[in-house]
Amino acid sequence: MSLLEVDAINTYYGDSHVLFDTSLAVEQGEVVALLGRNGSGKTTTMHTISGVLAPRTGKVRLAGRDVTGKPPFEIAKAGLQLVPDTRRIVKTITVEENLQLAALTAKNPWPIARVYETFPRLAERKKNMGRALSGGEQQMLAIARALMMKPKLLILDEPTLGLAPVILGQLSDAMKTLRDETDITILLGEQNVTFALPHADRVYVLEHARIIWEGPPSAFATDMAAAYI
Prior knowledge:
Shape: globular
Helix content: 25-40%
Largest sheet: 6 strands, mixed
CATH superfamily: P-loop containing nucleotide triphosphate hydrolases
CATH architecture: 3-Layer(aba) Sandwich
Mean pLDDT: 94
CATH topology: Rossmann fold
Number of domains: 1
Order of helices and strands: EEEHEEHEHHHHEHEHEEHH
Strand order of the largest sheet: 6-7-8-3-9-10
Oligomer: single chain
Distance between the termini: 33 Å
Number of strands: 10
Strand content: 25-35%
CATH class: Alpha Beta
């Protein structure tokens, strides 16, 4: 049984069919990349999995539990944390207060010291207000807040969007730390192939709201790169 099982979901915005028979699976401890150009359906897929949207047909199971169409807070309680591309943080309090606030709602939160080890940039900025952070630093903080919850599954929606190269490198280092030193499971939605592939165990490709390819990162260059890049 996979940690996450998505079985032939179809999602609509009103009468508009926006996700077609999408199926994917994520095993415990994997990093799975969901690649696709802007508008391909990545965010719709992640919102459907996390309960922001309800599929009209199909099933979503998390750790064997049917969470199809459940509200986001219930799916979060079941162990899923979604970090949207809007970099959701509290901008009127400090970095450390953001982490402390996240810890208040967690049964067994990550130690803040461990978060700072994973994101040294946040340790340097821990007394800074959220609104004083750069976009990339806010993205790191949003991910760190989600990690405080010790999720079974962490979903990252376009974490590299608009990041400066230096922050992109630091985020890549943090991803490597998460993969090498924790048992966290990650579904990574990205259009930045060069960022996603080194961290991924498996890859799905979305095009026009349909999964068109699945395979290991090593096969992507042969099978998909010419068409995708």
